[in-house]
């Protein structure tokens, strides 16, 4: 079973937040070339055995503007690390996605 999922509504997001303690939320915009980096990064890291306890969740900000506002997302791609629903770190923009390995380590240790 894949540990990557795409969220299409608030109910699914809340269910995922209830079901998983360590989550990476990847916010993207389908009309942004830079946002496609989330797919590559999530696919790469989700296959790593050390990331098996992390749920990777992709959210299209064009479809779920409520979530975009809730987490104050101002640019895509943005990745948020949540541990027990608490924000413990984030990467904003394509340049900061290079910091994703560090963010994953931070999430693992929390």
Automatic annotation (TrEMBL):
Pfam families: Thioredoxin. CDD domains: TRX_family (cd02947). Residues 11-105 form the Thioredoxin domain. SUPFAM superfamilies: Thioredoxin-like (SSF52833). InterPro entries: Thioredoxin-like_sf, Thioredoxin_domain. This is Thioredoxin domain-containing protein. It comes from Lobosporangium transversale.
């Amino acid at each position: 079973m894949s540990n990557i999922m795409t969220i299409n509504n608030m109910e699914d997001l809340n269910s995922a937040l209830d079901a998983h303690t360590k989550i990476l939320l990847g916010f993207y915009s389908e009309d942004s070339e830079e946002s496609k980096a989330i797919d590559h990064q999530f696919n790469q890291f989700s296959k790593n055995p050390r990331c098996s306890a992390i749920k990777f969740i992709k959210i299209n900000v064009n479809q779920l503007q409520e979530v975009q506002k809730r987490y104050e997302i101002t640019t895509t791609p943005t990745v948020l690390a949540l541990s027990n629903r608490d924000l413990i770190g984030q990467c904003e923009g394509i340049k900061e996605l290079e910091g994703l390995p560090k963010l994953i380590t931070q999430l693992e240790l929390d």
